[in-house]
Task: structure prediction
Amino acid sequence: MISKLSKFLCVCLVGMGLSDAFAQWEQQASGTSAPLRGISAVSAQVAWASGAQGTVLRTLDGGAHWARVGIAGAEQIDFRDIQAFDGQTAFVLGAGSGEQSRIYKTSDGGKHWTLQFTNHDPRAFYDCFAFWDARHGIALSDAVEGRFLLLTTSDGQTWKPFAPPSLPPALPQEGAFAASGTCIATAGKNRVWFVTGGPAARVFRSVDRRSVDRRSADRGKTWKAATAPILSGTATQGIFSIAFSSPENGVIVGGDYKEPSKHERNAALTTDGGASWAPVSGLPGYRSAVAFIPGTSPPVVVAVGTTGSDASRDGGKTWQSLDALDYNAVSFAGLRAGWAVGPQGRIAHFVALP
Result:
């Protein structure tokens, strides 16, 4: 049943001149007032969410009910990122300085959690992680002594520091943003990218030196960085999120989270795997997360931020507004399997209109 709020949003979309609106958000009851920043859609029925105050939520019925499956002893951890693989298996990443940065895993739907990693360097701050599959993942920290820190797992159980010599050094005050857990992205079996902000907006991409066209990747062993046309120059500006619909075609979003209504240089596209980026317009302000909807052609992509959400039906070239509510993160497993999360426990389900 479509909620009254969803019906209201649909009416607003038409009233704004978007008579061809194809989707809307249906608000769901999360059962928490904690700020939510992590969301991982698994299927039309299964999704996991995470946030402040050690919050971890799971639904097995498309969001009709969200259950707390939090971690004992982690009530003070801010879980900024979550990656789930089914209704039983999920990883969560706590973001923060020193030992606030942690990684936990559950294999039984949240009944029990295993602490897999605790950061003991007070200078490090882990922002986000991403996975190629349930055994292979990579996590990113802000720079320490001018070098970004990486962790990898090859068994889904243990995490080890990973310091490839080819990783370009960080610029002074350059860092990643833990706003949505989407500052790093993987694709296929080997590709990985991460994005930064501050003095410059850069995209770091894994490449393979053995490749003739430099477009294949080696799962983070070799890196190159490209400057992107996203707003930068201060600590609150830069690229906040990256997503790919294919190994070559991707989108980045960001801006200035202190001035979220600035609509300049908030998005860019790549068609060469991240080697170069072209600016696009249409987003009305800062956006903290972006995600493609798997299985859509042309690719449908959704961006969310503190001033609302937007959708593109042409891979990010043009955009139309979905609503003006405050969201932090978004995730899709299909056209009818998408959620966004935000402050005060907000969870919304993506509903494609007939």
The CA atoms of residues 96 and 353 lie 39 Å apart. The mean pLDDT is 92. The radius of gyration is 19 Å.
